[in-house]
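Listing S7. Sequence submitted for prediction.
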Amino acid sequence: MPSVTAIPGMIGRKVGMMTLYDGSGRARGVTVIEMAGNRVTQIRTTDRDGYEAIQVGAPGNRRNTTKPEAGHLRAAGLEREALTALQEFHVTDVGGFELGQELGVDQFEPGVYVNVTGTSKGRGFAGGVRRWNFRGGPKTHGQSDRHRAPGSIGAGTTPGRVWKGQKMGGHMGNRQRTGLNQLVVYVDPARQLLFVEGSVAGPRNGLVSVVLGRKKQLANYEPPVLSLPELEEVVIEEAEAVVDEAADAEADTEATTEDAPVAEATEDAPAAEAADDAPAADASDDAPAEDDSAEEAPAEEPAADDAAADETDGDEQKNEADA
């Protein structure tokens, strides 16, 4: 008989596994289950059906619904929703539910225990060693082909047959398996994620169902303090800050590159002015030299007059001597 709980179960999809640290610092290996898109598709009542239950629909493995499914969902006004996974969950009271109502993962609190049902991975045909952990035959004493043989499967004359349920090779996996009383470590209502301690049967993206377990809630449980949405916001803000810093650095680089020719031009301008002033300075330096030569020229004229006077005196003395 299915268990009757106060809240209905939900259908989810297995995302993967990770490690979380609770409030006390204990590391817990958890399985992440996405529980998005759960809607109430049918309500079972005692007067009409003889029991009380809630039928929940969720996006399944098929994208499109069949015509019978679409007709069934039309009564709840969900014919346009691709709710291909349907399952009933027995509840104590159906008065608080209505058709089309959306169920959220926040109905599960951290510290409660849940039962998670999934379909294990299919392994195909497997022998007794892999399927049932048989030891195999002896490796010596001439046993060359009995290493992985199953061995005897029954007695001889009595009972003269093979008992039902005898462990043999056969199809392994692809079975429905339920993990009982798994602790809810953390709940993320923003992204409809449920973090359940331990492993869950099935591959990634496999469908699972989660119902409330019978075990009492863990007393004094401290869930993880860190909120994942807040962590995402912090990471996004840090990334934006890094991008802004890079943009500012690039803008500064471009501004420096644009200012470099102006700086070179300003540096060349004094040199050009100095070069233009150099000829004027040379001209001003040469001008006093010419003035000095001009002033020295008149000083040479009296010396020439003295030489002419001496010659005249010499001629007169010579004429007197001849006389």
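Caption to Listing S7: primary sequence and predicted structure tokens for the chain studied. Residues 123-172 form one domain. The radius of gyration is 52 Å.
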